[in-house]
Design goal:
The complex is a heterodimer of chains A (375) and B (396). Chain A is α/β, with parallel strands linked by helices. Chain A is 53% helix and 13% strand. In chain A, strand 11, helix 12 and strand 12 form a beta-alpha-beta unit. The longest helix of chain A is centred in the middle third of the chain and has 45 residues. The N terminus of chain A is likely disordered. With 396 residues, chain B is of the alpha/beta class. Chain B folds into three domains: 129 residues, Rossmann fold (3-Layer(aba) Sandwich); 72 residues; 148 residues, Rossmann fold (3-Layer(aba) Sandwich), CATH 3.40.50. Chain B is 53% helix and 10% strand. Chain B is built from 15 helices and eight strands. In chain B, the strands form two sheets. Chain B has a four-stranded parallel β-sheet, sandwiched between helices. Chain B has a four-stranded parallel β-sheet with strand order 6-5-7-8, sandwiched between helices. In chain B, helix 2 runs antiparallel to helix 7, helix 7 runs parallel beside helix 9 and helix 13 packs parallel to helix 14. Classes of the chains: A alpha/beta (375), B alpha/beta (396). At the A-B interface, helix 5 and helix 12 of A face helix 5 and helix 14 of B.
């Protein structure tokens, strides 16, 4: 109480240093020697790539990604996994394995679901322990001593809808990397800004694409009314899949290729503005626990009037998708939906046949279907 | 030592107790007729899915807390899982199919309201999807889904109950009875733990099962908290009176796994009965009491901090911590039971493998789907039994 101006400074300093000391006991700087950080190109990488990269680079670290998924990575991951795991998580373990020789530590964060309406599949929660225990037979050297397992860098984000918990999780991580509070604050701020900018850029690009298509459709309708020959606008397909399927050239690539070969305009459901899609999804269901599925469903609902068909793709056996795909097939009416499951089979002929027949149906429908078949 | 009967003690101390309670009695602020019980419950038939031995507690919950009529489902048959699998997506987790099958049977028997619990992982979305599937099948019903209102906890659930089931529910009475329901579940768990540990060694075959049926019936008839305590006391006395022929150092197995499959005997094909029939002492940490009433996840995790950094999923910490504690206590083996496609428990497997390797304790991994055959399970359990029995013999 009496700590006024002359003693105040010392008192405050003491309090401050005391707090730091407490923090230093709690938060070791055990990651301080990590210079090169490896990030597996799988799962949440496709959602938080920019955030993570900017964050680590602002703290003066070098970031390396694993290479794009290929057959070898998937096979290595499958060999490491329990056979009942989903395809995407098998690929994740393959990516971790491919990083082992190229970096000091692999970044494997834990994204928990404390918010029951805005959580993740429990896979993202268990990844650090899953990776630690799967690679327990490996050895790494730290401070001249051999340690069991592999070196991972981790933090626990308990609720992504609450920005404070995100910031506190990454503050702890930065402190363990040996950053000062000012560096930490700046790194997190920059990282959040960069991720927001990237999300906004993608969303803007998508809106622009949709606007162009609407314009083309309007033109085509106008010229057909006037009897002129019109260029037909491309079929617009909403590609609703987890980002780690949709943007992975190996896992979801075969479907994307097939659609592109048939001259379809692909709109990715995970790129629509996240706040809007998340909010919209409560119109569909108020109990879905997974934020990514919420965003996909919200995107379907927002864009349903602008698209010709929906392609739902999930990796076998995806937990959240096993339920939400069923719900989408039951409750989204009026737009044709193709539901595809990707598994470890490398042949793409089956997928191509299904995509082609789906597009044929859409084309047929656009011409007027059975009623106006000769027109 | 047999406990003295209540009335014997009562005669001796009645006068002092009467005086004591008279002093402690709460003042009667309300007119008496408010406290008068209704003669019968609201005539709405409420059904809940089959879940292991908890049926008496569900009955108590529906009759005493929700104040409705309880619709009892008959013992399960193969039709249950067939119906469930028929109408659900093929790679959804197996409890979903069991519960959907139960609901279809309940609705065929004339249920007005079906109850679905909310919960972590996919369980939070069970209710809504099942409601949608059942509506598509053309059933008319109301679903009490505790996934609604989960953000606000008990207040949210109370509002949900008032809205969906019974608007003129007596809330203070319901709260008291809800606490009693929790007490009944704990007592069921406690009795079942004793049952599991000793059923394999009964001298007269079937005496534990008969005592269990008696306990279940007694709990079914309970109407107040006091009835529950009394029924439990009598049942436990009966359990303790059963003659046992237990060796000094029996084979001990711990059962760990997913919350539904590891506990529910219908979906794990009577795993516990099969194991105890072989003369094994069973311990199972995962049950309602340990997972909900006394659950302290960070504390549990600290015990297994060598293997766990974070909470890996709804029951993962308990699975790993239980397996580790069994290993440290020198159990002969652990059986890990989960349903097909249960992501959190699949992620536990590498951790359990690590525990198993570190302590040299065998773990049997069982995955149950809708097609699991009874004979296949028998074969695997027998092989596991032979292995741990031989291992034990070698080490003695």
């Amino acid at each position: 109480m009496s700590a006024t101006s002359p003693k105040g400074g010392a008192h405050n300093r003491e309090r401050f240093s005391g707090k730091l000391a407490v923090n230093n006991v709690l938060l070791k700087t055990d990651y301080a020697d990590v210079r090169i950080i490896g990030i597996p190109r799988a799962l949440l990488f496709y959602r938080y790539r920019t955030f993570w990269t900017t964050f680590f680079e602002n703290l003066g670290r070098r970031v390396v990604y694993s290479r794009e998924t290929d057959q070898a990575i998937l096979e290595a991951g499958t060999a490491r996994s329990i056979d009942e795991c989903c395809l995407a998580s098998k690929a994740y373990l393959g990516h971790v394995e491919s990083l082992l020789t190229t970096c000091d530590a692999v970044f494997v964060p834990c994204y928990a679901s404390w918010n029951v309406r805005c959580g993740f599949c429990t896979k993202f929660q268990s990844l650090p322990d899953l990776v630690r225990n799967t690679f327990a037979q490996e050895r790494y050297v730290k401070d001249g001593r051999l340690h069991a397992g592999i070196r991972i860098l981790t933090c626990e984000v308990t609720d992504i809808s609450d920005k404070k918990t995100v910031i506190s999780a990454y503050t702890e991580l930065a402190q363990r990397l040996g950053a000062t509070p000012a560096q930490t604050k700046r790194a997190i701020k920059e990282a959040l800004k960069a991720q927001e900018a990237e999300d906004a850029a993608r969303a803007n690009a998508q809106e622009e694409a949709l606007r162009l298509i609407t314009q083309l459709k309007r033109q085509a309708r106008k010229s057909s009314k006037e009897g002129k020959p019109a260029t037909e606008p491309p079929l617009t397909i909403l590609f609703a899949a987890h980002p780690y399927i949709a943007h992975d050239h190996f896992l979801g690539g075969s479907v994307i290729d097939a659609l592109e070969r048939l001259d379809c305009q692909i709109i990715f459901a995970d790129e629509t503005r996240h706040e809007r899609t998340f909010k919209e999804s409560f119109e569909f269901s108020d109990t879905i626990p997974w934020v990514v599925n919420r965003e996909l469903i919200g995107s379907i609902m927002l864009l349903q009037d602008h698209i010709d068909g929906i392609v739902l793709v999930s990796a076998f056996p995806c937990g959240p998708d096993s339920m939400t795909d069923d719900a989408i097939m039951r409750c989204i009416q009026g737009t044709p939906i193709l539901n595809l499951l990707i598994d470890a089979q490398s042949g793409t002929a089956g997928i191509e046949t299904r995509v082609e027949s789906f597009i044929d149906i859409l084309r047929f429908q656009r011409k007027g279907g059975y009623i106006h078949a000769d027109a | 030592m047999p406990m003295p009967k209540i009335h014997e003690v009562g005669d001796r101390v009645r006068s002092s107790v009467a005086l004591h309670t008279e002093k402690k009695r709460e003042p009667r602020l309300r007119p008496r007729q408010h406290l008068k019980k209704k003669l019968r419950h609201k005539p709405t038939k409420v059904a809940i899915f089959r879940y292991s031995y908890y049926a008496p507690a569900f009955k108590y919950f529906i009759e005493q807390v929700l104040d409705c009529e309880y619709l009892r489902l008959p013992d399960p048959t193969d039709r249950n899982i067939e119906l469930g699998s028929l109408y659900s997506s093929d790679y959804v987790c197996t409890p979903f199919k069991h519960i959907l099958g139960d609901f279809i049977e309940a609705l065929e028997l004339g249920a007005d309201i079906i109850v679905q619990t909310g919960g972590p992982c996919r369980l939070g979305y069970y209710g809504e999807l099942q409601e949608s599937i059942l509506r598509d099948l053309g059933y008319e019903f109301t679903m009490l889904n505790f996934s609604h209102g989960i953000e606000k906890g008990y207040v949210g659930w109370a509002k949900e109950v008032l809205k969906v089931v019974n608007p003129d529910l007596n809330i203070p009475h319901a709260v008291r009875q809800l606490i009693a329901t929790g007490g009944m579940m704990s007592k069921l768990d406690e009795a079942h733990d004793f049952y599991l540990a000793n059923r394999g060694f009964e001298v007269e075959k079937g005496s534990f099962d008969r005592a269990w049926t008696a306990l279940s019936d007694a709990f079914d008839a309970c109407k107040t908290d006091r009835d529950i305590t009394e029924a439990f006391r009598i049942a436990m006395e009966r359990f303790h009176e059963i003659a046992l022929d237990k060796p000094e150092n029996p084979l001990r197995i711990g059962v760990v796994g997913e919350f539904f499959t590891a506990i529910d005997e219908n979906s794990n094909l009577h795993l516990e009965r099969k194991l105890t029939d072989m003369g094994i002492e069973i311990h199972r940490m995962i049950n309602f009491t340990n997972r909900y009433t006394h659950y302290n996840e960070p504390n549990l995790r600290r015990g297994a901090s060598k293997y766990l950094l974070y909470d890996m999923g709804p029951t993962s910490t308990m699975t790993v911590a239980a397996a580790l504690s069994y290993a440290q206590q020198g159990f002969d083996g652990v059986v890990h039971a989960k349903s097909a496609g249960c992501t959190p428990e699949i992620d536990c497997v590498p951790v359990l493998q690590q525990v198993s390797a570190d302590y040299g304790m065998p773990i049997l991994y069982l995955t149950y789907d809708a097609q699991t055959s009874d004979t296949g399970l028998d074969t695997r359990l027998e092989a596991f039994y032979d292995m741990i029995a031989m291992k034990k013999e070698k080490h003695l």
